[in-house]
User: What shape does this take?
Amino acid sequence: MPIQHVEQQRGPDGEISYTVAETPEPQPWAVDADFAVVGHPHTRVEGADKVTGRARYTYDVRLPGQLYAAVLRSPHPHARIKNLDISRAEALPGVRAVISSATHPDISWYE
Assistant: This one.
């Protein structure tokens, strides 16, 4: 028996209209032994690469000119930083930028 759906809508003039649509009765899924996965062992395609260390992850990707970032957070919850000396961090070899609330006051933690 088909399933009937009744949809109620109100038009711009306030009139209520009803739409009736029929959906065919859902048919049960046919059991197909070729697609039965649950309860049966199966070979993982990427398994050998993962256990031998050959698998590539996003962490392994190196792009030309790629930069890295590190976030230094306060070890004290709800603490406010009153003073921050970034001169030693800026002097380290390879450092391109040190970003803090002092250098970028327009950027807040909640954005």
